[in-house]
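call fold(seq) -> tokens
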Amino acid sequence: MDITIISDTHLGNLKFEEDSLRPKGFSEKILKRLKSYSLSKDSILLHLGDICYEKDAEWNAAITSLAPGKKWLVTGNHDKKSASWYLSHNWDMVCESFTLFAFGKRILFSHKPLPVTFSSGIDLNIHGHFHDFSLEKIQTEEPHLAEFVGDKKHFLISLEKLNYAPVKLKHIITLFSEQENKKNV
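ret:
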């Protein structure tokens, strides 16, 4: 299964540049990296929310036109359109979260981290939302989510930490499995 994941693109958000949260031209950089990624007609582009700041139709078209395969969207706190709007703008699936069994793991995909307990049967929650925020900032702004930072069951997709490039699900699972093996030694 070839799933490529990206999150929190915030395309067109000039405030990110003004506040030095991201470099000038980050929107174009993200689209260029996505275009150069090996996506095929058999692949899935999974976006974990917060696509753009404004000009929704323009930015959604820009991102979905780069992915020849399926496009799945897990909506984020800045994705304000209806599911039918996104579906009519080239997304093949739109939801708030979903679970998938892949590479021997039961994976929960969401924009913000969600609670994962032993009894839930979820091995891993892959999410976005936090960018490269410090633990102190998360504790101040969203203390109810701070407990998930650094948790072995949560994996943050942060474009800032990934040099504005998407990441393959298989790579995340490899990293997760390596962490699990270290725990068991």
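Strands lie at 3-6, 44-47, 70-74, 93-95, 97-102, 105-110, 124-127, 154-156, 167-168.
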